[in-house]
Amino acid sequence: MSEKAKSNIEIGEQREKSLLLLVRLKKYFNKIKDANFDENIQELKNLAVSAGAYVEDIIVHNQEELNPKYYISVGKLEEIKGIVAQKDISLVIIDEEISPTQQRNLQEKLNVKIIDRTALILDIFAQRAHSREGKLQVELAQLNYLLPRLRGKGIELSRLGGGIGTRGPGETKLETDRRTIRNRISQLEKKINQIGIQRETQRKRREETNIGQVALVGYTNSGKSTLLNTLTDSNVEARNMLFSTLDSTVRKLKTEQGYELLLSDTVGFIERLPHQLIASFKSTLEEVKKSDLLLIVVDLSNPNYESHIESVRSVLKEIEIQPKPAVIVFNKIDKVTSDSILKARFKYRDAVFVSAFKKEGLDTLIDKIKDELQGNYITITVKIPYSENKLISQVYDNCQVLKKKYLEDSVLLTINADINFYPRLSNYIYRGALSNY
Q1: For residue range 5-31, what is the model confidence (pLDDT) as tens digits?
Q2: Would you say residue 168 lies in a domain?
Q3: 224 and 301: one domain?
Q4: Coil, helix or strand for 383?
């Protein structure tokens, strides 16, 4: 037996042997490029490996429509049953979110653990969460996912043997009723809300320093943490793995010329990021909402980087990021040819090209950040009545407050206003004397 074969056996013994299942509906054949679907396959494999699975087999099945009972056609299901038994597979991972009924039916038919893409990503987050806030957020997302999957008074997940898909709250036997789960969800929401209030207080203190705030966003494993470390001389954990960063990190960038700004890094995005996670990580993602500028970090060495850009934009839309300045930063240029860089430069003319690892292109990036922060804002003074408390709150959320003075019936604010937000303030422009202000 070859050394490679021995190595695979050893890995298989240490990890859960899994089968990946991807279903492609025929009505989408002409709309989905093969390259994109190949990426779906590779991404699911990467997710499975990140969760701790050993991928024994991958099945891609083309069918007319989804089977409401089993998700997959009965004939293919019988074939999979034979493969599962023959290869001693203990876990089947499906590339879409399936219904609780489909999951139960598949589990009973195949007699192995069945998890979908959402459960897989939640499991990875459960492994990666280290901070108190991160753990609470992941548990909340998992419970919101598990709640509709409880049958009768409960479902005993422990009978599946633990492992992938049962980490976090799944480690305790969920042999309990929905009321208990809902009570726990309510407790988690209150705790996360309290942490969110503390985070908001910290954020407002930073805003009072009048330093520009820039948020790094991007597809998972695009190199955001490495870029943060390189720019700010920090040591935030940066690993070549999916979702290595879950907790929001803020660091100060200070150039030799004395220019200062705050850089924040948070969880990486991915195509079809589970909505439970987006909801649970709302307070963490506020760092993105409150920023003055977004840097969309893209791994140029990934052949499907354009679809990653669209996925990031889709998530930004889902978390209701208001229109604000954004710069695409193509990272890892040290891993691609000059032709690849030239092609991207031609299509993304305003983008910046860097290698965070090799420290290339960073001066150009910093100059671009300075230009964007200065060029997309207008300095104005507004006088807003206290009765317009909602608008005052929005000003603090969306503008940089340079100066303030509390009057008898209103507040006088000198601010750097985003040009997209300026029209909402046009009726409150203060045109009086500022000599005593």
Answers
A1: 444 434 444 688 999 999 988 766 555
A2: no
A3: yes
A4: strand
Amino acid 236: pLDDT: 65
The pair of three-digit structure tokens given for residue 410, joined into one six-digit string:
């209103």
Provide the domain limits for residue 261: 210-375
**Number of C-beta neighbours around residue 423 at 10 A:** 9
Query: pLDDT averaged over the chain?
Result: 81
Q: Which of 258-262, 269-273, 280-284 has the lowest mean pLDDT?
A: 280-284
382 domain-assigned: yes
pTM of the model: 0.70
Lowest mean pLDDT among 49-63, 161-175, 291-305: 161-175
Same domain, 338 and 396: no
* 391 contacts 421 by C-beta, under 8 angstroms: no
Residues facing residue 60 across a β-bridge: 22
Beta-carbon contacts of 274 under 8 Å, excluding residues fewer than 6 positions away, are 97, 117, 118, 121, 122, 141, 145
282 and 257: one domain?
A: yes
Work out whether the CA dihedral 259, 326, 288, 411 comes out positive or negative.
Answer: positive
343 and 399 both lie in a single domain: no
Residue 427 has which token pair?
């009726």
Q: How far apart are CA 132 and CA 284, in angstroms?
A: 12
Pair 403, 326 in one domain: no
pLDDT band at 159; cut points 50, 70, 90 = very low
Min mean pLDDT across 138-152, 297-311, 341-355 is at 138-152
Tally of domains in the chain: 3
Task: Decide: residue 64, CB within 10 A, 0-12 exposed, 13-18 middle, 19+ buried.
Answer: exposed
- State the pLDDT at residue 283: 64
Q: How many helices (H) and strands (E) does the chain have?
A: 14, 13
214, 261 Cβ separation under 8 angstroms: yes
In a domain, 249, yes or no: yes
CATH number at residue 346: 3.40.50.300
pLDDT at 400: 75
**215 and 323 housed in the same domain:** yes
Identify the CA nearest to 167 among candidates 198, 233, 121, 209. 121
Answer yes or no: is 325 within a domain: yes
Place of tokens 């890892």: 332
